[in-house]
Amino acid sequence: MDNNKHPDTAGFLPDFCHVRTLFAVVLIAELLVFVLVLAQPAGVNRWQALGLYSLYVQWIALGCAVVLCLLRTWLARLRPAAAGVAAWLLILVITGAVTWVARGLVLDSGARPGEYLLRSVGVAALVSAVALRYLYLQRDWRRRVESASAARVQALQARIRPHFLFNSLNTIASMIRVRPAEAETAVEDLAELFRASLETGDGLTQLDDELRLAEGYLHMEQLRLGERLHVLWEMEDLPRDALLPPLTLQPLLENAVYHGIEPRREGGTIRIRGSLRGATLRLCVDNPVTAGATGRPGHGMALDNVRERLRLAFGDAAQFHVHRDGETYTVCLELPRHGAGQGESEGDAHAHTDRG
Predict the structure, then answer these.
(1) How many domains is the chain built from?
(2) 143 and 37 share one domain
(3) Does some domain include residue 3?
(4) pLDDT above 90 covers what percent of the chain?
(5) Which of 102, 128, 155 lies at the terminal end of a domain, its last residue?
(6) Which candidate among 15, 143, 188, 249 keeps its CA 20 to 30 Å from the CA of 285?
């Protein structure tokens, strides 16, 4: 996910100024050449035809790419339908111009100039119409996927288990008279958590904000569970402005409390580990589980949503691992170091000990 949202008027045409797009245009044009050469009647020198048609079709393809590159700003301001029609007409004009110039220099089809021009423009009209339609459908599909992903992100961020809310409010109510200062802090932590959960799911958040939110959540649970919950932070010097999807750690910590701490009468320790290896940021959450027990039943919704949000934000550059080793259940995520500053102050070092 990107912080900057592209408006709907950005259009569906790719950036023809990009080298990768130009390479794709050249490759597709050459595939069309192969089809035209194979369609030639018997007796035609196919190697000669391949060379001539390659030169001819590549002139048209690169000419269209150059014009669409130069006019990309203008085309982006048009509605998708208008931009598609304009691009289609430009391709036909360029095809006609190249054909008219090349008919006597390169190609000698035996047909009259007008007939060959009409044939070339007709082929270009069909091929370009199919290509533009494909680009439009691809853009429409991508928008649908992004909308569905945004809805899933917002559903996750709006999802805080009701039992956590009710338990937190009961805990705060019980502390108001005997520990008013702690009750006030708990209210602030709860308000901060719900503020983050009710925000839209667009963009990324800084690691510093995510860790502060996680600390507030665990503080709320420590007030409720008391000595049954211990928290151990093992953080190296991490880039505090590294970016990740909002509310990434909180669902993992909630799972750790719900499945790892609450079912155990003696409680346990949740360990949050963070490290930076090159350009990869690694965050892990460990919680205890009873050996041989399956623990509380769960649907894996939180884990699946976090995994999906990482994939949408970083693609294959992000990894999500779940592992159980004896009495320890571990969830680790690895993501690229995006937005990290060059110089961090010493005060940003985040080496925690037990905050319980």
Answers:
(1) 2
(2) yes
(3) no
(4) 20
(5) 155
(6) 188
**Phi, then psi, of 178 in degrees rounded to 5:** -90, -30
Mapping DSSP onto H, E and C, the string for the chain reads CCCCCCCHHHCCCCCCCCHHHHHHHHHHHHHHHHHHHHCCCCCCCHHHHHHHHHHHHHHHHHHHHHHHHHCHHHHHCCCHHHHHHHHHHHHHHHHHHHHHHHCCCCCCCCCCHHHHHHHHHHHHHHHHHHHHHHHHHHHHHHHHHHHHHHHHHHHHHCCCCHHHHHHHHHHHHHHCCCCHHHHHHHHHHHHHHHHHHHCCCCCCEEHHHHHHHHHHHHHHHHHHHHHHEEEEEEECCCCCCCEECCCCHHHHHHHHHHHHHCCCCCCEEEEEEEEEECCEEEEEEEEECCCCCCCCCCCCHHHHHHHHHHHHHHHHHCEEEEEEECCEEEEEEEEECCCCCCCCCHHHCCCCCECC
* 110 shares a domain with 253: no
Same domain, 62 and 39: yes
CA distances, 230 to each of 185, 227, 262, 288 (Å) = 19, 7, 12, 11
Domain boundary among 91, 126, 155: 155
State the residue for tokens 């399956």.
Answer: 294
Phi, psi of 170 (to 5 degrees): -65, -40
What residues make up the domain containing 338? 158-348
- Please tell me whether residues 206 and 96 are part of one structural domain: no
Residue with tokens 């590294």: 242
Range scoring the smallest mean pLDDT among 179-193, 200-214, 234-248, 256-270 = 200-214
| Co-location of 56 and 16 in the same domain | yes
> 107: buried, middle or exposed (CB in 10 Å: 19+, 13-18, 0-12)?
middle
Q: Could you tell me if 150 and 166 lie in one domain?
A: no
**Any domain includes 355:** no
pLDDT at position 253, please? 92
My answer on whether 49 and 100 are in the same domain is yes
* pTM summary value: 0.55
